[in-house]
Amino acid sequence: MNTEIVKIEINNDKVSSSALEEKELSVFSKEELAAIKQAGEIIKNGGLVAFPTETVYGLGGDALNPESSKKIYAAKGRPSDNPLIVHIADFEDIYKITSKVPDNAKKLANAFWPGPLTMILPKSDIVPRETTGGLDTVAVRFPSDFVAQEFIRAAGGFVAAPSANISGRPSPTEAKYVIQDMDGRIDMIIDGGENEIGLESTIVDLTIDPPQVLRPGFITNEMLGDVLNEKVETDRAIIEADSGIAPRAPGMKYRHYAPKGILVIVEGNREEVVSEINRRLEEDKANGFRTGVIASDETIGEYSADVSKSSGKAGDQFTAAHRLYSILRSFDDENAERIYSESFALDGFGAAIMNRLLKAAGHQIIKL
Ligand code: TXA
Ligand code: MG
After folding, report:
1. Which atom of ligand 1 approaches the CA of 118 most closely?
2. 270 C-alpha vs ligand 2 centroid, how far in Å?
3. Domain stops at, among 239, 273, 293
4. pLDDT of 252
5. Which atom of ligand 1 is nearest to the CA of 199?
6. Were both Cys, which of 54, 176, 190, 348 would link to 145 (CB 3.0–4.6 Å)?
7. Ligand 1 atom closest to 249 (CA)
8. How high is the pLDDT of residue 241?
9. Are 173 and 297 part of one and the same domain?
10. 247: helix, coil or strand?
11. Residues of the chain with pLDDT under 70
């Protein structure tokens, strides 16, 4: 298959919302609008298009067409019991794909949509089970990225989209990674530049009481709890790796985000971590392995790895999240075989960073 690649790069920060509210004003050029329209036609005709969102790139198909969902699973190499997120670009559309929208869903939508939050709700009959991995519930997300929104509207309003990576690889946060994984497998890739956040959306299950976070993300449990006026906890299966409990989000059970090399997290105070990682690096080098390190701006100079990457200033969670997947992919590009990462604090957005890092490491963590 020949994959067409189109570039539509908008800086969301520079677009004023008042400009957007005036319907005549478009943030897109005529050519860009034509390309997005074409992408929408591909979806309506049962094809697949990768597109940017504020979190990671999505691999889109028509959420209401069972054949499209089957194609998505095939392109990703993903097990078909792993449900897809349905992306909308108009809040009212939630009523078409769900059978019940509880008050807490309305409150969360009000506070966080459009944005990096996915809500699990009971599905309506028009959503095929091929899209929901056989479940009676559906994951719904209204992304804030303008390219995503325009594309979803052009596609008919309901775009099923997992992250646009081959199953098991880190989610793509730049078009070049989508191209690496999907070139030749799908009809079109919309290159919208680097994704703003770089980690997948927070998933909250509203079909249970109290609601539960199934995947941590930029919208934290505290932020959800503040809006809902109750304490929101994370699915225990996600926090306790060895609990043997099945996670409620089927996708969370799979090995994921993993580099090809072996990744180990080292946790402790700064001096101890640096010396322990350096000791292991020496050992690995003596054994002939190519080595890698995920450090911070403050510590990167202290390591002797073949490939050293900084996740930003210590404590800068936004930068760490933004860089995580491209760092993991760069280890593959540079053939790192033994990789060590410093650990991250668990507060705020840190819970999401550590969730992904632990999965990438197959939960190998050394606590000093
Ligand atoms: O930020 C994101 O959410 C990105 C962008 C493209 O929007 N999408 C994304 O999709 O991360 P994906 O397919 O890689 O992850 C979706 C997760 C999986 O873990 C899946 O099991 C879970 O959502 N999920 C989807 N529908 C569900 C449902 N009905 N019940 C429970 N979990 C569900
Ligand atoms: Mg994914």
Report:
1. 3
2. 32
3. 239
4. 73
5. 1
6. 54
7. 32
8. 64
9. no
10. coil
11. 11-25, 239-244, 253-255
What tens digit of pLDDT does each residue of 32-65 get?
999 999 999 999 999 999 999 999 999 999 999 9
d(CA 144, CA 157): 14
For residues 290 and 208, state if they share a domain.
no
Q: Which domain holds residue 339?
A: 262-367
- CB within 8 Å of 172: residues ≥ 6 apart: 50, 56, 57, 163, 164, 165, 178, 180, 181, 325
Nearest CA to ligand 1 atom 19: 251
Residues 268 and 345 in one domain: yes
Tell whether 195 and 291 lie within a shared domain: no
177 shares a domain with 273: no
Quick one: CA torsion of 333, 334, 336, 342, rounded to 10 degrees?
A: -90
Distance 155 CA to ligand 2 centre (A): 21
Specify the residue with its C-alpha closest to ligand 1, atom 25. 83
pLDDT score recorded for residue 195? 96
pLDDT of amino acid 326: 97
CA atoms of 252 and 237, how far apart (whole Å): 9
Which ligand lies nearest the alpha carbon of 97?
Answer: 1
Q: Which residues' Cβ are closer than 6 Å to ligand 1?
A: 53, 55-56, 58, 82-85, 118, 120, 132, 135, 137-139, 141, 161-163, 200-201, 203, 214-215, 248-252
- The model's pTM is 0.95
